[in-house]
Description:
Number of helices: 12
Distance between the termini: 53 Å
Helix content: 40-55%
GO cellular component, one term: membrane
Bound molecules: ligand C2E, magnesium ion
Strand content: 15-25%
Protein name: EAL domain-containing protein
Radius of gyration: 21 Å
Shape: globular
Structural class: alpha/beta
Order of helices and strands: HEEEHHEHHEHHEHEHHEHEH
Keywords: Membrane, Transmembrane, Transmembrane helix
Amino acid sequence: RAKGEGRNTYRFFDAQMNEAIAERRELEGDLREAFERGDLELHYQPLVDVGSGTIVAVEALMRWQHPERGWISPAVFIPIAETCGLIVPMGRWLLQTACAQAAMWPGISLSVNLSPAQFRDRDLVPFVAATLAEAKFPAERLEIEITEGLLLDASLKPLETLLALKALGVKIAMDDFGTGYSSLGYLQSFPFDKIKIDRSFVSAIETNPSAAAIVRSVVGLGQSLGMTTTAEGVETAGQMAFLQGERCDQVQGYLLAKPQDPLRLTALLGTWRDGAFTTADKDMSLQ
Ligand code: C2E
Ligand code: MG
Ligand code: MG
Ligand code: MG
Protein backbone atom coordinates (compact mmCIF):
# COMPACT_ATOMS: atom_id res chain seq x y z
CA ARG A 1 0.00 0.00 0.00
CA ALA A 2 2.78 2.39 0.97
CA LYS A 3 4.47 1.66 -2.34
CA GLY A 4 1.32 2.54 -4.24
CA GLU A 5 0.96 5.82 -2.38
CA GLY A 6 4.57 6.65 -3.12
CA ARG A 7 3.96 6.14 -6.80
CA ASN A 8 0.92 8.36 -6.72
CA THR A 9 2.93 11.02 -4.96
CA TYR A 10 5.56 10.85 -7.68
CA ARG A 11 2.87 11.15 -10.34
CA PHE A 12 1.47 14.14 -8.49
CA PHE A 13 4.84 15.89 -8.41
CA ASP A 14 5.53 14.92 -12.01
CA ALA A 15 2.28 16.51 -13.08
CA GLN A 16 2.99 19.65 -11.06
CA MET A 17 6.48 19.88 -12.41
CA ASN A 18 5.37 19.37 -15.98
CA GLU A 19 2.83 22.12 -15.52
CA ALA A 20 5.44 24.49 -14.11
CA ILE A 21 7.81 23.69 -16.98
CA ALA A 22 5.08 24.19 -19.56
CA GLU A 23 4.07 27.48 -17.97
CA ARG A 24 7.64 28.72 -17.92
CA ARG A 25 8.16 27.68 -21.55
CA GLU A 26 5.01 29.57 -22.51
CA LEU A 27 6.13 32.70 -20.63
CA GLU A 28 9.52 32.43 -22.27
CA GLY A 29 7.90 32.35 -25.72
CA ASP A 30 5.65 35.29 -24.83
CA LEU A 31 8.63 37.25 -23.51
CA ARG A 32 10.65 36.62 -26.68
CA GLU A 33 7.68 37.77 -28.76
CA ALA A 34 7.10 40.85 -26.61
CA PHE A 35 10.76 41.82 -26.88
CA GLU A 36 10.83 41.31 -30.66
CA ARG A 37 7.63 43.33 -31.10
CA GLY A 38 9.06 46.17 -28.99
CA ASP A 39 6.48 45.71 -26.22
CA LEU A 40 8.90 45.92 -23.30
CA GLU A 41 9.02 49.26 -21.53
CA LEU A 42 11.42 51.11 -19.29
CA HIS A 43 10.38 52.96 -16.19
CA TYR A 44 12.67 55.23 -14.20
CA GLN A 45 12.80 55.73 -10.44
CA PRO A 46 14.50 58.80 -8.94
CA LEU A 47 17.43 58.66 -6.51
CA VAL A 48 17.36 61.72 -4.28
CA ASP A 49 20.34 63.39 -2.61
CA VAL A 50 19.53 63.57 1.10
CA GLY A 51 21.51 66.77 1.75
CA SER A 52 19.94 68.89 -1.00
CA GLY A 53 16.71 67.03 -1.77
CA THR A 54 17.63 67.09 -5.47
CA ILE A 55 16.95 64.22 -7.88
CA VAL A 56 20.49 63.25 -8.83
CA ALA A 57 19.91 59.99 -10.68
CA VAL A 58 17.30 57.58 -11.99
CA GLU A 59 17.33 53.79 -12.02
CA ALA A 60 16.04 52.16 -15.22
CA LEU A 61 13.70 49.25 -14.47
CA MET A 62 12.26 46.90 -17.09
CA ARG A 63 8.49 46.55 -17.43
CA TRP A 64 6.40 43.97 -19.26
CA GLN A 65 2.64 44.07 -19.65
CA HIS A 66 1.51 40.61 -20.75
CA PRO A 67 -1.52 40.72 -23.10
CA GLU A 68 -3.52 38.30 -20.90
CA ARG A 69 -1.77 38.25 -17.53
CA GLY A 70 -1.21 41.98 -17.07
CA TRP A 71 1.98 43.40 -15.53
CA ILE A 72 4.55 40.72 -14.78
CA SER A 73 7.21 41.50 -12.19
CA PRO A 74 10.83 41.71 -13.36
CA ALA A 75 11.53 39.38 -10.42
CA VAL A 76 9.68 36.79 -12.53
CA PHE A 77 10.68 37.58 -16.11
CA ILE A 78 14.33 38.63 -15.62
CA PRO A 79 15.28 35.11 -14.34
CA ILE A 80 13.50 33.62 -17.37
CA ALA A 81 15.41 35.97 -19.68
CA GLU A 82 18.63 34.97 -17.91
CA THR A 83 18.19 31.24 -18.41
CA CYS A 84 17.11 31.45 -22.06
CA GLY A 85 19.80 33.95 -23.07
CA LEU A 86 17.34 36.72 -23.92
CA ILE A 87 18.86 38.88 -21.19
CA VAL A 88 21.80 39.82 -23.45
CA PRO A 89 19.76 41.40 -26.28
CA MET A 90 17.25 42.77 -23.75
CA GLY A 91 20.02 44.32 -21.68
CA ARG A 92 21.55 45.87 -24.81
CA TRP A 93 18.21 47.37 -25.76
CA LEU A 94 17.81 48.72 -22.23
CA LEU A 95 21.25 50.32 -22.22
CA GLN A 96 20.75 52.00 -25.60
CA THR A 97 17.24 53.22 -24.79
CA ALA A 98 18.06 54.42 -21.28
CA CYS A 99 21.26 56.24 -22.32
CA ALA A 100 19.44 58.04 -25.16
CA GLN A 101 16.61 58.92 -22.75
CA ALA A 102 18.84 60.04 -19.87
CA ALA A 103 20.90 62.21 -22.23
CA MET A 104 17.78 64.41 -22.43
CA TRP A 105 17.66 64.89 -18.65
CA PRO A 106 20.46 67.38 -17.94
CA GLY A 107 22.75 66.50 -15.05
CA ILE A 108 20.87 63.34 -14.12
CA SER A 109 22.87 60.13 -13.71
CA LEU A 110 21.54 56.77 -14.88
CA SER A 111 21.66 53.45 -13.03
CA VAL A 112 21.20 50.17 -14.87
CA ASN A 113 21.07 46.65 -13.42
CA LEU A 114 23.35 44.08 -15.03
CA SER A 115 22.82 40.34 -14.58
CA PRO A 116 25.72 37.91 -14.24
CA ALA A 117 24.63 36.42 -17.58
CA GLN A 118 25.48 39.73 -19.26
CA PHE A 119 29.06 39.43 -18.02
CA ARG A 120 29.36 36.22 -20.02
CA ASP A 121 29.01 38.40 -23.14
CA ARG A 122 32.57 39.10 -24.30
CA ASP A 123 31.45 42.27 -26.03
CA LEU A 124 29.92 43.83 -22.91
CA VAL A 125 32.61 46.46 -22.33
CA PRO A 126 32.99 47.57 -25.98
CA PHE A 127 29.20 47.61 -26.27
CA VAL A 128 28.89 49.93 -23.26
CA ALA A 129 31.60 52.20 -24.69
CA ALA A 130 29.91 52.33 -28.13
CA THR A 131 26.48 52.97 -26.59
CA LEU A 132 27.77 55.88 -24.48
CA ALA A 133 29.44 57.42 -27.53
CA GLU A 134 26.38 56.99 -29.72
CA ALA A 135 24.03 58.52 -27.11
CA LYS A 136 26.61 61.23 -26.31
CA PHE A 137 26.03 60.29 -22.68
CA PRO A 138 29.00 60.94 -20.34
CA ALA A 139 30.44 57.72 -18.90
CA GLU A 140 30.71 59.42 -15.49
CA ARG A 141 26.92 59.63 -15.35
CA LEU A 142 26.36 55.92 -15.95
CA GLU A 143 26.29 53.60 -12.96
CA ILE A 144 26.14 49.84 -13.27
CA GLU A 145 24.41 47.94 -10.45
CA ILE A 146 25.54 44.40 -9.76
CA THR A 147 24.69 41.96 -7.01
CA GLU A 148 26.92 39.74 -4.92
CA GLY A 149 26.04 36.70 -7.03
CA LEU A 150 28.26 38.00 -9.83
CA LEU A 151 31.31 38.17 -7.57
CA LEU A 152 30.94 34.53 -6.54
CA ASP A 153 31.40 33.26 -10.08
CA ALA A 154 35.10 33.45 -10.89
CA SER A 155 34.47 32.04 -14.39
CA LEU A 156 32.81 35.37 -15.23
CA LYS A 157 36.03 37.26 -14.41
CA PRO A 158 34.04 39.89 -12.52
CA LEU A 159 37.04 41.92 -11.34
CA GLU A 160 38.56 42.17 -14.80
CA THR A 161 35.28 43.33 -16.35
CA LEU A 162 34.42 45.76 -13.56
CA LEU A 163 37.89 47.32 -13.85
CA ALA A 164 37.44 47.64 -17.62
CA LEU A 165 34.10 49.36 -17.07
CA LYS A 166 35.70 51.66 -14.48
CA ALA A 167 38.40 52.50 -17.02
CA LEU A 168 35.65 53.89 -19.28
CA GLY A 169 34.67 56.20 -16.41
CA VAL A 170 31.53 54.24 -15.50
CA LYS A 171 30.56 53.95 -11.79
CA ILE A 172 29.87 50.62 -10.07
CA ALA A 173 27.24 50.03 -7.38
CA MET A 174 26.73 46.99 -5.16
CA ASP A 175 22.96 46.42 -5.26
CA ASP A 176 20.82 44.76 -2.56
CA PHE A 177 23.70 44.95 -0.08
CA GLY A 178 23.26 42.75 2.96
CA THR A 179 21.33 40.00 1.20
CA GLY A 180 22.80 36.89 -0.37
CA TYR A 181 26.39 35.99 0.33
CA SER A 182 27.50 39.35 1.64
CA SER A 183 31.14 39.44 2.41
CA LEU A 184 32.87 42.58 3.59
CA GLY A 185 35.88 41.34 1.65
CA TYR A 186 34.05 42.19 -1.57
CA LEU A 187 34.04 45.86 -0.60
CA GLN A 188 37.82 45.69 -0.38
CA SER A 189 38.54 43.61 -3.47
CA PHE A 190 36.13 45.17 -5.94
CA PRO A 191 36.04 48.79 -7.13
CA PHE A 192 32.64 49.91 -5.81
CA ASP A 193 31.62 53.56 -5.89
CA LYS A 194 28.32 52.95 -4.12
CA ILE A 195 26.56 50.61 -1.71
CA LYS A 196 22.79 50.24 -2.08
CA ILE A 197 21.33 49.13 1.26
CA ASP A 198 18.64 46.54 0.60
CA ARG A 199 14.99 47.38 1.14
CA SER A 200 14.60 44.52 3.64
CA PHE A 201 16.73 46.48 6.16
CA VAL A 202 15.36 49.91 5.31
CA SER A 203 11.73 48.83 5.65
CA ALA A 204 12.41 47.49 9.16
CA ILE A 205 14.24 50.58 10.49
CA GLU A 206 11.33 51.66 12.68
CA THR A 207 10.26 48.22 13.86
CA ASN A 208 13.45 46.23 14.29
CA PRO A 209 16.38 47.74 16.26
CA SER A 210 18.79 45.28 14.61
CA ALA A 211 17.78 46.48 11.16
CA ALA A 212 18.32 50.09 12.26
CA ALA A 213 21.75 49.16 13.67
CA ILE A 214 22.68 47.40 10.42
CA VAL A 215 21.64 50.40 8.31
CA ARG A 216 23.62 52.73 10.60
CA SER A 217 26.70 50.50 10.33
CA VAL A 218 26.54 50.17 6.56
CA VAL A 219 26.22 53.96 6.17
CA GLY A 220 29.29 54.33 8.41
CA LEU A 221 31.13 51.67 6.45
CA GLY A 222 30.37 53.46 3.19
CA GLN A 223 31.59 56.75 4.63
CA SER A 224 34.84 55.19 5.88
CA LEU A 225 35.47 53.53 2.54
CA GLY A 226 34.66 56.67 0.54
CA MET A 227 31.64 55.08 -1.11
CA THR A 228 28.24 56.66 -1.66
CA THR A 229 25.42 55.02 0.32
CA THR A 230 21.90 54.75 -1.08
CA ALA A 231 18.95 53.43 0.91
CA GLU A 232 16.47 51.44 -1.19
CA GLY A 233 12.74 51.16 -0.63
CA VAL A 234 12.20 54.22 1.61
CA GLU A 235 8.45 54.35 2.23
CA THR A 236 7.87 56.33 5.43
CA ALA A 237 8.78 59.73 6.87
CA GLY A 238 10.20 57.92 9.92
CA GLN A 239 12.64 55.90 7.79
CA MET A 240 13.58 59.11 5.97
CA ALA A 241 14.26 60.97 9.23
CA PHE A 242 16.49 58.14 10.46
CA LEU A 243 18.47 58.10 7.19
CA GLN A 244 18.87 61.89 7.30
CA GLY A 245 20.11 61.65 10.88
CA GLU A 246 22.63 58.97 9.91
CA ARG A 247 23.83 61.05 6.94
CA CYS A 248 23.00 58.42 4.36
CA ASP A 249 23.85 60.03 0.99
CA GLN A 250 20.89 59.09 -1.19
CA VAL A 251 17.39 57.69 -0.86
CA GLN A 252 15.17 55.83 -3.30
CA GLY A 253 11.64 54.64 -2.63
CA TYR A 254 7.91 55.17 -2.90
CA LEU A 255 8.06 58.02 -0.34
CA LEU A 256 10.06 60.02 -2.88
CA ALA A 257 8.70 58.66 -6.16
CA LYS A 258 7.67 55.37 -7.75
CA PRO A 259 9.22 54.12 -10.97
CA GLN A 260 7.43 55.80 -13.87
CA ASP A 261 7.45 56.09 -17.63
CA PRO A 262 9.79 58.66 -19.27
CA LEU A 263 7.03 61.21 -20.01
CA ARG A 264 5.90 61.25 -16.39
CA LEU A 265 9.46 61.36 -15.16
CA THR A 266 10.19 64.37 -17.39
CA ALA A 267 7.13 66.09 -15.88
CA LEU A 268 8.24 65.17 -12.36
CA LEU A 269 11.71 66.65 -12.96
CA GLY A 270 9.97 69.89 -13.96
CA THR A 271 7.77 70.10 -10.86
CA TRP A 272 10.12 68.58 -8.27
CA ARG A 273 10.75 70.83 -5.28
CA ASP A 274 14.09 70.11 -3.67
CA GLY A 275 13.67 69.07 -0.08
CA ALA A 276 9.92 68.53 -0.25
CA PHE A 277 10.41 64.85 0.53
CA THR A 278 6.92 64.07 1.67
CA THR A 279 5.11 65.97 -1.05
CA ALA A 280 6.37 63.89 -3.99
CA ASP A 281 3.38 63.70 -6.31
CA LYS A 282 2.37 60.09 -5.96
CA ASP A 283 -0.51 60.55 -8.40
CA MET A 284 2.05 60.84 -11.15
CA SER A 285 3.16 57.28 -10.58
CA LEU A 286 1.77 54.52 -12.72
CA GLN A 287 2.20 51.60 -10.38
P1 C2E B 1 16.43 46.33 -7.76
O1 C2E B 1 17.50 46.61 -8.75
O2 C2E B 1 16.84 46.22 -6.34
O3 C2E B 1 15.36 47.48 -7.97
C1 C2E B 1 14.62 48.06 -6.95
C2 C2E B 1 13.26 47.43 -6.85
O4 C2E B 1 12.57 47.94 -5.72
C3 C2E B 1 12.35 47.76 -8.04
O5 C2E B 1 11.50 46.63 -8.23
C4 C2E B 1 11.54 48.94 -7.52
O6 C2E B 1 10.31 49.12 -8.19
C5 C2E B 1 11.33 48.50 -6.10
N1 C2E B 1 11.07 49.61 -5.19
C6 C2E B 1 11.60 50.85 -5.22
N2 C2E B 1 11.17 51.58 -4.20
C7 C2E B 1 10.34 50.81 -3.48
C8 C2E B 1 9.56 51.00 -2.29
O7 C2E B 1 9.56 52.06 -1.68
N3 C2E B 1 8.83 49.95 -1.85
C9 C2E B 1 8.79 48.76 -2.49
N4 C2E B 1 8.03 47.80 -1.98
N5 C2E B 1 9.52 48.53 -3.62
C10 C2E B 1 10.28 49.54 -4.10
P2 C2E B 1 11.21 46.03 -9.66
O8 C2E B 1 11.14 47.13 -10.67
O9 C2E B 1 10.04 45.13 -9.49
O10 C2E B 1 12.49 45.19 -9.98
C11 C2E B 1 12.84 44.07 -9.22
C12 C2E B 1 14.25 43.63 -9.52
O11 C2E B 1 14.30 43.11 -10.87
C13 C2E B 1 15.27 44.75 -9.47
O12 C2E B 1 15.64 44.97 -8.14
C14 C2E B 1 16.36 44.16 -10.33
O13 C2E B 1 17.13 43.26 -9.59
C15 C2E B 1 15.57 43.37 -11.37
N6 C2E B 1 15.48 44.17 -12.61
C16 C2E B 1 14.56 45.09 -12.98
N7 C2E B 1 14.83 45.58 -14.20
C17 C2E B 1 15.97 44.95 -14.61
C18 C2E B 1 16.78 45.01 -15.80
O14 C2E B 1 16.52 45.78 -16.72
N8 C2E B 1 17.86 44.17 -15.87
C19 C2E B 1 18.19 43.35 -14.85
N9 C2E B 1 19.27 42.59 -14.99
N10 C2E B 1 17.47 43.27 -13.73
C20 C2E B 1 16.37 44.06 -13.60
MG1 MG C 1 18.98 47.91 -8.83
MG1 MG D 1 18.31 46.98 -5.33
MG1 MG E 1 16.47 45.28 -3.74
